[in-house]
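Can anyone check this?
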Amino acid sequence: MTNVDIDNIVCFINLHEPFDIKFLSEQIPEAVYNPSEFEGFSIKFKGRKAAIIVLSNGKIICTGAKSIKDADESFKETIQKINNTGLTIKEDFEIEIENIIASTSLYKDLDLSAISSALIFQGVTYEPEIFPGIIYKLKESCVQISIFASGKIVCTGAKSMDEMNNAIDMVKEKLSSIGV
């Protein structure tokens, strides 16, 4: 298993109940609501990196979470804030992951030109004048891996922790197979 740092999990719950965003934003002191910019409101929590966006269609989005547990706690706290306004929302929700952004390191410098040449026919793009890393799009999923000369590997687009871990492990195996 690879040592991976979760940088951001973007996920949501759908309560399938429309919200009066203006009312809720007036009742929840932490809510930031600016309808001329966005038709929803946000909540940031003290001591937590995660932030919440509440939409009028009943969807609640969490961004910035470092774990599913962090997202779950943010959703529960948001539902409690909504319930404190007089509405009754049940806490039986299912978290759907939209995107996991994670990173790891090989702890060594890499020759990106050599790597991109060795992997040229395998979904690899390397244009250093546009982006300072190799972009590797996995054919089996929506996952994209960026590989940097510093040895850092960044994974985006995974919809589960298993998908993220498997993608990073697979890239490490491919790099190992070409002598990196």
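Reply from J.R.: I decoded it. The chain has a mean pLDDT of 92.
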